[in-house]
Amino acid sequence: MRVAVLKRRWLFLVILGCVVISLAGIILFAPVHTYLIGLPYKDSFTAGTADEWRALGGTWELVDGAMRNDSDERGAKLITGSSRWRDYSLEADIMLLGHDGDAGLIARSSDEEGGVDSYSGYYAGLRNHDNTLVLGRADHGWLEARVEPIPGGVRPFHWYHLKLIVVGCDIATSAVDPSIGTNISATMNEENCVQTGRIGLRSYSSGGVWRNVRALPATRADLQSFQSQAGISYPAQTGLPGNPPLLRSDDSATETESQPSANYLSAPIAQPIGSLRLVSSANPGIVTVQGVVVLTSPALYVQDSTGGAAVLRPHAPPLKVGDEIEVTGQPEPRDFSSVLHDAQVRLLWTRTPIPPLSVTASQAATGAFDATFIELDGYLASKESGPGNTMVLDLQKGEQSFQAVMNRGRGDVLFRKLKQNSLLRLRGICVVDSEYTHNLSPFVLLLRSADDVDVLAGPPWWSTGHLVAITVGTLILVLAAQVFYSRAEQWRLRAVLEERERLAHEMHDTIAQSFAGIGFQLQAIRNDLQDKNAAVHRQLDLACDLVRHSHEEARRSIATLRPESLESIGLLPALDLCARKMVDGGSVQVVISSSGNSRAMPVRTSDALFKIGQEAIANAVRHASPTSLNIHLQYEKSQVHLVVEDNGVGFTAGGDSLGFGLQGMRKRADSISAVIGIESTPAHGTRVEVSAPLPPQLTFTGWPRCIWQYLQERRSNAQKWERSHPYSYRG
Predict the structure, then answer these.
(1) CA angle 658–606–715, rounded 5-degree value
(2) Between 545 and 32, where is the model more confident?
(3) Which one, of 547, 544, 540, lies nearest residue 513 by Cα?
(4) What's this model's pTM, rounded to 2 decimal places?
């Protein structure tokens, strides 16, 4: 029964541990936004935060309260929301940053990966390649469902309002051009449609800008109302109800400036950017260069095959990374690159962003790659908030140190997650200008977005913090194992004690009562005998004495199975009580004493010491005829000493030393790895001393010694068993 109880308790502990570990795993590793974001949803771009969004490609950054992707990458996506979202509407203001691409919204997205159409869901967007509103399904491939032409075309650098609604297997979308008040819509229906998924922003072969992103729960009535309003015109330049005006005052100028010049071939012949360093600083003149935009903020950087240059205070249309431009301005040669002042910028055409140059930190420190888009690796030494809305990473590669600067917004999440000594791969514009380096590092990388940082490897596990954590964790596990082991031992010993008490009660109810009954019957027979045969009476008296003696021995044996006083009052008071019962009515004086700091000892040890002391007291009372009996208990750090000493007649060594009682005392001492000594001389009394080891107190510094002593004890017990069973089978 007790074994079953122990098994149930251990099973409960195991199940509880599994539940705790599972809950910890869910809390630590599950995507937080999956559980925290709910409908309705509205972006926090104007507050400068976008922690809940996850990018797959592109260069997504917050600029002027809107999400901007400056990359012409094909199929760049930005995802948020919950995979459990079912029926909802999604809308946003959208601006395209190129002439030959599209940008729009994703609904019911799942299984997202980097790459073109590498997701499962629905997409609605504005495409200026053929000036249409497009609606379709992506399932790691594109299935175009509806294409609706937009009057006046889809103009880049112009705000549109796009709405996408999904209810059941019905999908509908509309595009509003507030400047002319048109509303173009498209619908589709799928038999086996995607039922749930996240929301997202997407661009293809063109950059884009998104603002006022909202998602609201939708019903069938909302879908019908949306479809009934399809084709309704809105008053020009008023915006949608509840939205801020979508058209900026400078939109028309932006559109005019963004168009390629019809006669740009007649402009001055462009020279390589690398040749600007050869321009005379005394008479720089005006120069023209052509190159690709590699950075738009905090300054405009342009690059060609010969190098890069910064363009300060440019007169330029809205630009994005990857645009081919022509810059005409006044050059200023510097140590490693040049700067163009008061430059006129013309957009020639859009193209795919150029790849970075892979260099080492030592090569970048030479200044040969100043104002150039590069890629390099480094270990994160520290991180801190920079001036304005920036964050600064201090990095180290070999003997070379440098810094990287990125904007807040989407970079906040990455900034918090980056750990010291992680190996990072960074892509950015290398600058050696003291305006950025402050003469504290040889160069600084200006990162375009948080997506330009890749974590190649986390910090090494042998770091100081991890070693301390592993050590502390190991100590906690060892202590927990020790606690569980001690608790299991207590349960086992409690089961043994309960079984012994049960046997004691059964013996008391059977053997002891039987002896009492036999004695009573013998006494009755003696009293009923009519004759006065002295021999019969003498035999009956002997039988009664024998029964009485056996009864006392049985009661003593029952008491030694598990004396209740030992558990309730302690070892020394229990021995005192035992001794006083034995000498009750006699002239023997019992003296008890103790020394040292009293501490708890294992039940097995206290039982063995009690029985050894009980046997020593009984031997002294029966055989030594003492007048004084001293019992002393001494506690030490790792041992306990029990001394039972009398002033009786003593005995000669070798005489009774082989008796059954003394042999039993030695065996009990061996069972707890104790040392027993018996000293006696005739007429000078007897001294019995037992020294038993105590388990060390469990501390952070003492647990190895505890484990070592435990293993030594187990090994010693095993060797004793092998010596006592020389012919036992060994598998």
Answers:
(1) 75
(2) 545
(3) 547
(4) 0.52
